[in-house]
Design brief:
There is one protein chain. By secondary structure, this protein is α/β, with parallel strands linked by helices. About 45% of the residues lie in helices and about 20% in strands. The chain has one domain: Hypothetical Protein Ychn, Chain: A, CATH 3.40.1260.10. Helix 1 packs parallel to helix 3 and helix 2 packs across helix 5. It is globular and about 35 Å long.
């Protein structure tokens, strides 16, 4: 099965649990993508500067489970540089925001936390 894990909040525990589950699904044979949308890209700043410790973030990046962060939302929270430093791609096909329709049209079910 194909699953999109959608992070939307500026909440490190939400992101932790979302990524923990994304990794678990991946390790159990599912196709996984993760999108950081709304306020969640703000967390990238804390990950870069070390104020937020999320080892599962690095594991998700190693498995290439993070598809992208919303380009407009990342810019709105001044997190573009953090995204670039972490290697998180930025996409904004829907008026600067993430186009979730493309995931649904290719068979993904969407999880949000």
């Amino acid at each position: 099965m194909k699953y999109l894990f959608l992070a939307t909040e500026d909440n490190k525990m939400q992101l932790y649990h979302l990524l923990l589950n994304a990794i678990n699904f991946y390790e159990n044979g599912h196709e996984i993508s993760t999108v950081l949308e709304c306020a969640s890209p703000k967390l990238l700043i804390g990950i870069v500067d070390g104020t937020i410790k999320l080892p599962v973030f690095n594991e998700a990046m190693e498995h290439r489970l993070i598809d992208h962060a919303c380009k407009a939302c990342t810019a709105a929270f001044d997190a573009t540089r953090a995204a670039e430093q972490l290697g998180v791609p930025l996409k904004g096909e829907l008026k600067g925001h993430s186009n979730l329709l493309k995931f649904v049209e290719t068979g993904y079910s969407i999880f949000t936390f």
